[in-house]
Amino acid sequence: MRRSIISAFISFVIGCSSAYAQDYNLNSHNLVPFSLNPAQAGNANAIRLGLDFRQQWPKLDNRYTTVRLSYDQNVYKKMCSLGFAYSLDDQSSVYRSNEFSLVYSHTFEVTELSFIRLGLQGTYYLNYFGFDKLEYGDQYDSSNGHVDNSTIEDFETNTRGLFDFSFGAVYYVENTFSLGASVFHIAEPENGFVRKADNKLARKYVVHANYMHDLQYTNGLWGRRDMSDNYLFVNANYQQQADFKKAYLGLGVFLTPVILGVAEKYNLDGVFVTSLMAGCSIKGLQAYYVFDLPTYERENGAWSHEICLVYVIKQKERFPCPMVLW
Predict the structure, then answer these.
(1) CB 205: neighbour CB atoms within 10 A?
(2) Which one, of 202, 200, 190, lies nearest residue 161 by Cα?
């Protein structure tokens, strides 16, 4: 029955006269390197490796799974950063999207303690649609209720590749504050398998902010400019893609080696989701677990959870910028 429901839904979507695809959405964009803004590549001022695993609706057969791998590094003499990311979004093994992204960001010094970073991202998508895993109307025999394997439905291909570009900018005040904005899918490329011109990857707009407060000492004290191992952080972001809108507010504390946080997400359509995060940082390895618990009325197994690993190899800091957390 669940398979029939998702089959009917996907068939409806691919058959619409006009439709917009939507990006996967992570519980912890602020933990996952440069997932909100390509200009954040290199903001750890180190070689950084990231792995994120997310599963939505784990109690249902039609669960969604997302995996993201990333690498970014800051090149100090040129004040630029390079990054690479690969994402796999598997929707019930029926639709799979593979994303390969290259990122370049450049830092401009405004004052001794503030910077502007601009970032550009190029992405190649390789998408797969398992049409053979769906059930169609002509397969159903109303006389006996059986489902036949044959169908008159004919699809040109079950794979689709396309290129896309994204851009972002961030203003940083060292180890204190950041404010940024980004635009993904600038060209809104055709993304469909049926009526390709009418199915596009909708442009996504993101605005985000982050504030950090050191609990141990004040920046500038005795010439010190780095952060201590104990601080509070608050961050917020707003995302809009076609008709989908989401507002996010999170706060937390880092008391070495433990990090704890809580966040509230609202999709502006009556759905509130509370996220709880717990993690630790030991010798460059940061590990986080994030649990999404719906706080709206329906209880349909729609909660999700996420595991995030980040490994940081520190370099000599010349132009430090604050990391964005939670």
Answers:
(1) 13
(2) 190
What is the pTM assigned to this prediction? Answer: 0.82
**Among 83, 85, 105, 86, CA closest to 97:** 86
Could you report the per-residue pLDDT of 74-109, keeping only the tens digit for each?
A: 886 668 999 999 999 988 777 889 999 999 999 999
Question: What tokens does 226 get?
Answer: 């780095």
Q: Kindly report, residue by residue over 102-141, the tens digit of the pLDDT.
A: 999 999 999 988 999 999 999 999 988 877 666 666 666 6
In a 3-state reduction of DSSP, which class is residue 123? strand
Q: Give rounded-to-5 percent helix, strand, coil for the chain.
A: 10, 55, 40
Token pair recorded at residue 297: 């009325």
H or E element in which residue 4 lies: helix 2-15
Nearest alpha-carbon partner for 103 in 160, 166, 60:
166
What is residue 10's predicted lDDT score, i.e. its pLDDT?
A: 44
Question: E strand or H helix at 20, and its extent?
Answer: strand 19-21
In angstroms, the CA 312 to CA 24 distance is 25
Listed as ranges, residues in the chain with pLDDT below 70 are 1-21, 59-62, 76-78, 132-155, 194-198, 217-226, 294-302, 315-326
Both structure tokens of 35: 């997932």
Give the CATH fold of the 2-314 domain: Porin (2.40.160)
Token pair of 220, please?
């500038």
What are the backbone angles phi and psi of residue 230, rounded to the nearest 5°? -135, 115
Say whether 137 sits in a helix, a strand or coil: helix
* Neighbouring C-alpha atoms within 13 Å toward the C-beta of 92: 19
Of 232, 306, 233, the closest CA to residue 54 belongs to: 306
Q: For the chain, which residues make up each domain, given as ranges?
A: 2-314
